Amino acid sequence: MGLQGKLRLLVKNLGPAFFIIGYVVGTGSVTSMVVSGANYGLSLTWALFLSCFFTYFLIAAISKLTIVSGETLLYNFKTHFGKYPVIFIILALLISIVSSCIGIMGVIAEVTIEWLKVNTDLTFINEAVIAIIFIGLLIALFWMGKHKYFLNIMAILVGFMACAFIVTSIMVVAETKATFLEFFPRLPKDGTTGLIIAGMVGTTMAGVCLVSRSILVQEQKWSIADLETEKKDAITSMVLTFLISLAIMISATGTLYFQGVKVDNPIDMMSALGTWAGTFALTLFAFGIIGAGLSSIFPNLLLLPWLIADYNHTERDMKRPLFKALVVIVALSCLVVPLMGGKPVWILIASQAFSPFIMPLITFF
Length: 365
Hints:
This protein is mainly alpha-helical. It contains 17 helices and no strands. It has helices at residues 3-13, 15-24, 27-40, 45-69, 73-81, 83-119, 127-144, 150-176, 193-204, 207-219, 227-257, 266-276, 279-312, 321-332, 336-340, 344-351, 355-364. Helix 6 packs parallel to helix 12, helix 8 (150-176) runs parallel beside helix 11 and helix 13 runs antiparallel to helix 14 (321-332). It is globular and about 55 Å long. The chain starts with a helix and ends with a helix. The mean pLDDT is 78.
């Protein structure tokens, strides 16, 4: 088998892992890691590690259930517990999906405009135009691609995002010339530490990820003979999630924590990167945020049709007119903040509001 064949096999076997990484390491996750790094250095690395560690056991258990039963998580729930709990889960996930798309595109548009201000003289492009361009790109990828290519697209977006964040963190560490221990200051006892830890855990252990994991495993047509492959895929997804998130924390620590700058979102970090680490690091970080955002929106566009097909126990044929219409409607919701204004970071936080209701329910079932 040649190199191209090996790469195709790797993407096929690790497709669900790339999908999960793309969804988890989104703009909300970037925000949590930036705030954590800026305020506490790498002191909360343990919280990031534990959230990835326990998420692995959840997605591994869900994957095994799907492989052994042959059915997805929601259909298993519907069969054994009735339709009403499943309808509640789907509605809660729908609210999370739409609000997440609205918030993520708002942050992407802000980051892009900020980068254009620093690097170009373009003044006629506003956030609405940026949002329309990105939405058009995502719809085109969906419209032209067949279902089997979706995971390949996610692999490309995740690879791009990971490289941007990791290279940025390496540049920042080289520039700081700080000792290893300086990145781990003593954790102050203030009122926001618990909230930041909860945000870090919430962005990793998302209900949407758990439900979509089951769908992806069924898509792979894995059998009991593939349990080892499933295990490697689950481990890969969480290891890469941890490393990419850690790279973001390192970047924020090296630029913001050592300067004593407190931030609330990734936009604040960009100004510090531009003046401290240079425009190249700023560009890499901006592209990383854009990649993280697009890699989170893309699966969100697919999830509502998947959930409906899952509930009805029908084929996930994304060529159906209803499914195409739903994808376009969810995509157009991304225009809310660029057109009407608002605080995208707070909208992202609101999108996690249903997690306390969904996660215990899914775990209990």
